Amino acid sequence: METLSTTCVIAGGGPAGMMCGYLLARAGVDVTVLEKHKDFLRDFRGDTVHPSTLQVMHELGLLEDFLKLPHTRIRTATIEIGDEHFTIGDFSRLPTIAKFIALMPQWDFLDFLAQQAKKLPNFHLLMQTEAKDLIAQNGRICGVLATGPNGNMQIRAGLTIAADGRRSILRDKSGLKVNDLGAPFDVLWLSLPVLPGDPADLIGKIRDGQLFVMIYRTDYWQCAYLIPKGGFDAIKADGLTKFRNRLKSIAGFAAGRIDDAIKDFDQVKLLTVTVDRLSSWARPGLLCIGDAAHAMSPIGGVGINLAIQDAVATANILSPVLTKGVPGLRDLKRVQKRREFPTKVIQSFQVAAQNAVLAPTLAAMKTPEPPLLVKILNAWPWARQFPARFIGMGVRPEHVRLPKR
Ligand SMILES: Cc1cc2nc3c(=O)[nH]c(=O)nc-3n(C[C@H](O)[C@H](O)[C@H](O)COP(=O)(O)OP(=O)(O)OC[C@H]3O[C@@H](n4cnc5c(N)ncnc54)[C@H](O)[C@@H]3O)c2cc1C
C-alpha cells in the first residue's frame, strides 16, 4: 500500500477543509487535503458567502480577486407573509469591508481557494481520494486510510482533521458522541427562470402552511420549498400536477413559470436536514470541524460561514503548535472551546425557529399572523442591522491572526 507522510491531513475539501488547508499551508504547515469527488461541482450546496467570510478573504488579501468572479450581492432580506411584505434585514450597516452577502456557486468559491492554496509548496490536494478509516496507534490517531485513483493508501500525520461534512465517516469511526438536536423539515431545491424586472433579492414567503425561499442568482432563481420531514415520497405519490399547483400558490410573481420549468421530479432535489453537535470535537490526534462537528440547519444559510470560522480558529490556534511539533489533546480542545459557544448560539436560534415557526406553519396549513418582531423590523429600518449582523457575521467572528510564511 502506498504511504504518504504529512504534518496535517484534512479529510474533506468543502469550505471547512479547503479554508483550513489553505490557512495552515500559508502559515508554513505541510498539509494534505483529501476530497472524494473529482471536482467541486455539486448543485445546491449552499452558495452564500457571508460578510464575515468576505472579511476573512480581505484579511488574506484575496477579496479583490475573489469578487471578480461572477456573483450576486444581497443587501436586504425580505419576508412575505400572505400578501404582506416585510423587510427584516439590512446588511449595509455592518462593520465589515463587504456589506452584503455574495451569492456565488460554491464550486467557484472552492476552486478559487484551491487555486490560491496550490501556489503554496506545502499544500497538497488529492482529489478523488476518499478517507475510509482512521489509523490509531497507542490510543492516538496518526492518520487515515484512504482510497485514491491508484488504489488504497495510508496517509500518516501528526494531526488528522475531519472536515468531511455532516455524514462524516471519520467522526463515525472516531467513536465521538453525537447529539442529534432534531429537524422537523426537509428542503426541496429547484430552479426557476429569472425575467426582466424581477427584484434582485432574497425573498422568504409564508402562505397557507407553505414556506418558500427564492434566492436571486442573476440568471435563475434558486428556490427552496420546505416540507415536513420525510414528506417527499407522499408529494411524489400525489403527482407532479398537484406539486406544481402547490408551488404556483406560493411562488407569487414566478407562478407562471412553474409549468415550463418543472417537467419532472428529477428537477427537484431533496436535501435531508440534520442539526447535530458532537459532545467532544477531538480525541488525541483527531479534530472535527465544520459540519463534521456540528451539522447546521439551512435556516439563515449560515453553515458555510460557521465552517469557515472553525477553519480560521483552527489555523490560528494550531499552526503555531504544528510548525514546532504535534498538538496535544489540550491544544485541540482549545479549538472546541473557542468555537462551541458560537455554534450553540446559532443552533439554538435555528432549533427555536424551526420549532416555533416552521413546524407549526407546515402543520397548520394556514397563513400565520406576522410576529411582532417582524413588524418592528419592518417599521424601524435602523433595527434591521441586528438580524443582519447575527446572520452575516455570526457570534464571535474570527480574524486571521497568522503571518504568511
Ligand atoms: C438543504 C441545505 C441547504 C443549505 N444551504 C446553505 C446556504 O445557503 N448557506 C450556507 O452557508 N449553508 C447552507 N447549508 C449548510 C452548509 O451546506 C454546510 O453547513 C457547509 O457546507 C459545511 O461545510 P463543511 O466544509 O463542514 O462540509 P461540506 O460542505 O459538507 O464539505 C465536506 C466535503 O467533504 C467531502 N467528503 C465527504 N466525505 C469524504 C471522505 N470520506 N473523504 C474525502 N472527502 C470527503 C465532500 O465531498 C465535501 O466536499 C445548507 C445545508 C442544507 C442541508
| Number of E-type strands | 20
Task: Indicate the proportion of strand residues.
Answer: 25-35%
Q: Which small-molecule species are bound to the chains here?
A: flavin-adenine dinucleotide
- In total, the number of domains comes to 2
Q: Structural class of the helices, strands and pairings?
A: alpha+beta
Overall pLDDT: 93
Number of helices: 12
Low-confidence stretches: none
Structure explained in plain terms:
By secondary structure, the chain is α+β, with helices and mostly antiparallel strands. It folds into two domains: 2-181 and 274-393, FAD/NAD(P)-binding domain; 185-228 and 231-271, D-Amino Acid Oxidase, subunit A, domain 2 (D-Amino Acid Oxidase, Chain A, domain 2). Helices cover 34% and strands 28% of the residues. The protein is built from twelve helices and 20 strands. It has helices at 15-26, 51-59, 63-66, 106-118, 169-174, 232-238, 240-250, 258-261, 303-322, 329-364, 372-379, 385-393, and strands spanning 2-11, 31-34, 48-49, 72-74, 76-81, 84-90, 101-103, 123-126, 130-137, 140-148, 151-162, 178-180, 185-193, 202-207, 210-216, 220-228, 269-271, 276-278, 282-283, 286-288. The strands form four sheets. Strands 1, 2, 8, 9, 10, 11, 19 and 20 form an eight-stranded mixed sheet that branches. The chain has a seven-stranded mixed sheet with strand order 6-5-14-15-16-13-17. Helix 1 packs parallel to helix 4, helix 1 (15-26) packs parallel to helix 9 and helix 9 runs antiparallel to helix 10 (329-364). The structure holds flavin-adenine dinucleotide.
